[in-house]
């Protein structure tokens, strides 16, 4: 598993890094002060924004989000990080 996150202090805290390492999670670095380079901002959110509107409850919205995320193929995720 490769995890990409911003450089928030809670994400880079020693306890967090140690935990992820113990679970064999590889961390993908994120450029400091480059929020505009977050794959979520330019790849994920624009593609799902119109699909997750006007739900009757939080539970329904969360389930829709999970479904949409599961439909993104591994090759699409890889392409996102290569560009």
Automatic annotation (TrEMBL):
Q: Name one GO molecular function term.
A: nucleic acid binding
**Which InterPro entries does the record match to this protein?**
RNaseH_sf
- Taxonomically, the superkingdom here is Eukaryota
Q: What is this protein called?
A: Histone-lysine N-methyltransferase SETMAR
């Amino acid at each position: 598993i490769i995890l990409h996150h911003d450089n928030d202090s809670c994400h880079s805290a020693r306890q967090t890094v140690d935990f992820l390492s113990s679970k064999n999670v590889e961390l993908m670095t994120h450029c400091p002060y480059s929020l505009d380079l977050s794959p979520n901002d330019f790849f994920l959110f624009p593609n799902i924004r119109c699909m997750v509107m006007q739900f009757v409850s939080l539970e329904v919205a969360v389930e829709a989000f999970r479904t949409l995320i599961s439909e993104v193929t591994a090759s699409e995720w890889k392409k996102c990080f290569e560009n």
